[in-house]
Amino acid sequence: MKHLDEALKPYRNKTEYRHIGKSVRRQDGEAIVTGKALYCDDIYIPNALYMKVLRSPHPHAEVVSIDTSEALALPGVEAIMTHENSPQWKTGQPAHRLPIDRIVRYVGDAVAAVMATSKQIAEDALELIKVEYKLLPAVYDVEDAIKPDAYQIYGEEYNIEWLGYRYENNKLPPGSYFEHPEDPPFYFIREGDPEKGFEECDAVVEGKVSYDKATFPGAPETPFIAARWEDEDHVTVWASSQSPNMMSRPLGAAINAHVFANVPNVGGSYGNKNGMGYISLFVAAAAKVAGKPVRYAMSKEEQMLVYERRLGNKFIGKIGVKKDGMIHAIKGDWLVDTGMSAELTQGQVAEGLGELHIAFNKTPHWDVNGRVVVTNLYPVGICKGFGGQEFKSCAMHLATRALKKLDIDPFESFRKNFCSPGREYYWRTGRKYKNDIIDYDNAFVGAAEKFRWHERWKGWTTPSRVEGNKSYGVGFGVHCSGDPSCDETFAYVRLENDEVIVHCPTSESGMGQRLAAAKTVAEILNVPMERVSLTPSNNINNPADFGLAGSRGTITVNAACGRAAADAKRKLFELFAPYFDCEPEDLDTKDLMVFKKDNPEGAVHWNTLIHFYYSITGEGRMDGKFNTYSMVLLFVEVEIDLDTGLVKLTDVLSGTDVGQVMSPVELKMQLEGGLGAAGIDTGHLEGYVVDPHLGRTLTGNLIDYKWRTFTELPNFDTYILSSKWPTENPFGAIGIGEITGAAGPAAVAMAIESALGGYEFNEYPITPDKVLKALGKA
Amino acid sequence: MSRNLNLTINGKMYEFTVGDRLGQIPENETLVDTLRDRLGLTGTKRSCGQGACGCCTVIIDGKAVASCLTLTVECEGKKITTIEGLADPVTGELDPIQKAFNEHNAFQCGFCTPGIIMSTKALLDANPNPTEEELKEALSGNYCRCISHYQVIEAVKSII
């Protein structure tokens, strides 16, 4: 790829581009505003059966008997899958979850799936299935679940093992496929001597902070999977997945078949509809049992009650700070509630540890251990923030207690502790990586100035201002991710006649990454945007790529597509060199015309030699790395009604440095998106209410689960620097979408505490009842 | 005994019969299902099913309505407009609201966009010059989890 990078060099140093950095219409824009854009459930699949699922009313039980005969006799019912006839495939990390098990492990676990010719018939049939349960003890809290006498949610017969570690005391084995095969699992950071470190500190705090209320990522389009077996070895899948390969590769391995994954427009994901591990396994199994294609669009209630939620967690630990604001020692247990199953929770532990290590990068003494704990709550999946949001909402919040003791400005402390150029940090493999160049300090300074932090922050126990019965406080948080250059990516660019076709499996779930890929290719080939199209997002027309996760698309997809475009351009010039009787490097191209650099007037159209049935294919790839990390700063102001305890977010500033801006409108919306997807608002607003005795989620619908509407928007400002980072993105960009909300909960908690004169909260979300208690009014 | 049901959707007349036999519209069928599953008008999105999110918004006799809470049999003789019916039926020219959303990239995943556009259309038809507060109030029944709200407000303000 070196020769291609040489060809791309001139693009890195430009300050003005034809397409990059410009506000350009999305290719699917007209389809979206006219309703023509196709999402999974809009697609007709001939002969497909509709599926409805009978779900457990109990948090933990054994299915003693199940009688489906009456349901099967209902006209229109074609098949029913139960634990008795379900394929014995397993998903999860490590594999532990069957499509349907004899044991149900949470309220909502699948007991039977009915496949019928209409949705209504399938639903009617559910009521005809007779099930006898034997109830088992249930546990909902991570601390209870790991007690030695706790009931084991998975028995010995499941043989759950990974790299020599076994399931024990409801703790899943650590590690995932993120580590190098020869390395141990990455689930702790131990460095220096914490005990000695604490002795050297000026303030040491101990405590427990919980960010353990289940929260709903909330894609508007509910999860959808359809599966059609073509033969014993091949299955075609339609998925509302953010990443066709992240869905199809693990699925194919689990069911021992080749998966052809199709991903049309995706109605929101926020990372949450990436892997879709269990639901894809479930529908593939149902289609196998039925012997016909099966389509399954979850209802909103199912999405909210049984699909993958954000992980819950507690940090029980000790943090020491020196009087110059340096975090000096940290020790503790990070207990992660993964519900009844884990798809990639251990990977979230690995990244969460790495994210804290980038934030507390100058801390010499560490002993922090992450544990993934199984409970009888509904399962955890992937969601933007990916472990770091949850962990840092606890660990960084605990650290503020020590800063408060020494009356240190949290902004200045977090700024000093943040990883700077030349320093190493842990990332998800458990190895250390080095940041050579990226320096975010200018963004810290500029964003704080724009928010007027130093003027508005009045200290830990003084509100920013009080007006009548309203008290205002400000808070700050910082978040980072080491994923923006991760994992291998491949792309092809074809030049045919008068068009450019880009092959990469990038989907469109809202971030505008298909637009960015088209821009990159159009920029390098110097053609109008309308000449560039992308193949549909699937894994059969396109080469491999992990998918859109960790903000990696901006660097990796555009690096691969950029190199493929440069390769195609090289081949174009090689084709035309004999025609012009010159060397390929003497040629240039613009608007599909080729010409000698010293004679633009002699230009000829590409199709002079790229005839109707001729094709030039350029190839590009990028090898994954962990040497770049993204960063987002969040400054917030909250208003507290001292009579009602109502907390309102009034002012937000999101600051970052993205290198070269690819698409300004999409960038702005990604920053604003921090308010959504169970991000900033999990600080004070969002969270399910779960019955502590029955394990039932009581707010599993969009009326009872409160979130933000058009009438409740805070003032939202941004501070965006474009420092031209030397990333592998051809123009020097870095992605940030993954983390735009992640620093929010801790920033909101800080603001609320400050507005209340220094009252300390240890549980999220800080809802009005908790505020009234703090005010002595409840 | 089945009875007839006449619907006017996007200016076209449709004649159905009501009943439980194959091909008939049952009494409990919601409008969103009729539009999507019988007529292929999939621009109207099915999401929360409880009238909370606004993804299924259509205009019935000038008012923005959640089609997931509307029984099809109640729409006899009513004039229904969906996102597919906003463009000029003769020239195909997009409604100014659609143009403004497209020109401002006022969407991310786009799933809630048809509903937001229909709510905006009902508002602007009744009140061509709303204040920002009136606009926000009119859209308060439309959830957007990607948070495109700010860009939507910019788009609508560009045409009022």
Number of domains of chain A: 3
- The oligomeric state is heterodimer
Radius of gyration of chain B: 16 Å
SSE string of chain B, helices as H and strands as E: EEHEEEHHHH
- The averaged pLDDT of chain A comes out at 97
Terminal CA distance of chain B: 51 Å
Work out the helix count of chain B.
Answer: 5
What is the CATH architecture term of the largest domain in chain A?
2-Layer Sandwich
DSSP strand tally of chain A: 32
Mean pLDDT of chain B: 97
Strand percentage of chain A: 25-35%
Helix content of chain B: 25-40%
Give the largest interface pair and sizes: A-B, 57 and 55 residues
Total number of helices of chain A: 19
Largest sheet of chain A: 8 strands, mixed
Structural class of chain A: alpha+beta
Task: Write down the CATH class of the largest domain in chain A.
Answer: Alpha Beta
> What is the β-strand count of chain B?
5
Helical coverage of chain A, percent range: 25-40%
User: Which of globular, elongated, flat, extended, rod-shaped describes the shape of chain B?
Assistant: elongated
Written description of the protein model:
The complex is a heterodimer of chains A (778) and B (160). Chain A has 778 residues and is α+β, with helices and mostly antiparallel strands. Helix content of chain A is 25%, strand content 25%. Chain A has 19 helices and 32 strands. In chain A, the strands form eight sheets. Chain A has an eight-stranded mixed β-sheet. Chain A has a five-stranded mixed β-sheet with strand order 9-17-16-15-10. In chain A, helix 7 (244-255) packs across helix 8 (277-290) and helix 11 runs parallel beside helix 18 (744-755). The longest helix of chain A is centred in the last third of the chain and has 28 residues, at 553-580. The termini of chain B are far apart. By secondary structure, chain B is α+β, with helices and mostly antiparallel strands. Helix content of chain B is 29%, strand content 16%. The radius of gyration of chain B is 16 Å and the shape is elongated. In chain B, a hairpin with a 2-residue loop joins strand 1 (3-9) and strand 2. Chain B has five helices and five strands; from the N terminus they run E-E-H-E-E-E-H-H-H-H. In chain B, strands 2-1-5-3-4 form a five-stranded mixed β-sheet, with helices on one face. Chain B has helices at 31-38, 96-103, 113-126, 132-138, 149-157, and strands at 3-9, 12-18, 57-60, 63-66, 79-81. Classes of the chains: A alpha+beta (778), B alpha+beta (160). Chains A and B meet through helix 2 and helix 17 of A and helix 2, helix 3, helix 4 and helix 5 of B.
